[in-house]
Amino acid sequence: MLPGLIRKELLALSRDLHGLAALFLMPALFIVVMSLALKDYYQPPLDALRYVVVDRDGGVLAKRLSKAWIETHGVPQETPADWQARLHQGALKYVIVLDAGLSQELEAPSLPTQARVHLLAEPGIDGHLLNALHAELLGAAGEIKARHALLDAGAPPPPPGASIGALVDSRRAAAAGVRPTAVQQSVPAWLVFGMFFIVASLSGLFLQERSSGTLARLRALGVSPAMLLLSKALPYFGVNLLQAALMLAIGVWLMPSLGGDALSLAGVHWPALLLAVGATSAAAVALSLALAGLVRTPAQAGTLGPAINVLMAAVGGIMVPTFVMPAFMRQLAAASPMNWGLEALLAVLLRGGGIQEVWPYALRLGLLALAAALAAVLLFRRA
What we know:
Helices cover 69% and strands 4% of the residues. It has helices spanning 2-15, 17-37, 39-42, 60-73, 83-89, 102-107, 127-152, 164-176, 182-196, 198-212, 214-220, 225-257, 270-294, 298-316, 327-333, 337-349, 355-381; strands at residues 51-55, 94-98, 117-121.
């Protein structure tokens, strides 16, 4: 009986071409548009930021610090007399001020350095970028201080390959933290959103079967609510897997051809990725079935499910990445099922994680799927 019911669902899906197109095209378009629009936000072109260095010290070590910064950030602008006004107007993105006495402090290991090194930024600069630049600048000053102390102590010089520029690059990565590219954020985010968006298609088909009497006839034939739900869940689970394959393919092959970053699957732990996708799909399908059993009119089907999805996406880091949220919003995001799916995918695609890293999120999604499936059975009994 189950194979026949599944064929019925697949036939109904094949007739809903507009619904299928929305399930695949909507997240695909979001991935393309958001990845291209946010490309420079995730990886800002640091060497394109206009800046000046105001060297009030003029010593050897202060100049060495300026040189180290230029190696990684490009040549600064000529320092104008009205640099403070230009900074306030946004004509300059930031200004590095090296106060008098900096070289002396860099030569003395016991003296602090931070008070002599200042990073001033224009009012509209991104706060995370400013913090990363500030941490990098202080790290570069600390590196020069440490090298000078080693030379004074008679220690061997650093290896030839360990240039100041390379060390600054390492500090910049450590200071800014591991951040996803726009594609690495967009592909998992909109993939999760697309999976949960099946509620609109599923609710519509369920209402059609109810209004046409199909559900009543199946119940009269002795088909249990659990069997009905399973026959609907398996085809949509397959749709979600196809969605995942398509979204990953867009990130890997389409985005580079459009000028965006490429999604790299090199070294991905495939069992962990399958676990993340499967757990997210199970939660999405079960929740959609529960909502489909709850709605009673086409208006409810067209508003309730999509509204809940948009709310979960807004809170869960789909539309706005969690690393730019304030602390209380990050705590709220941790309660969103979409955030669980997103974090599971990011753990694999961004952080190189395996089953151990994905398991906590997969467990939450699995428990949600079980609870939603039980609720769906109860709702379908009174359908």
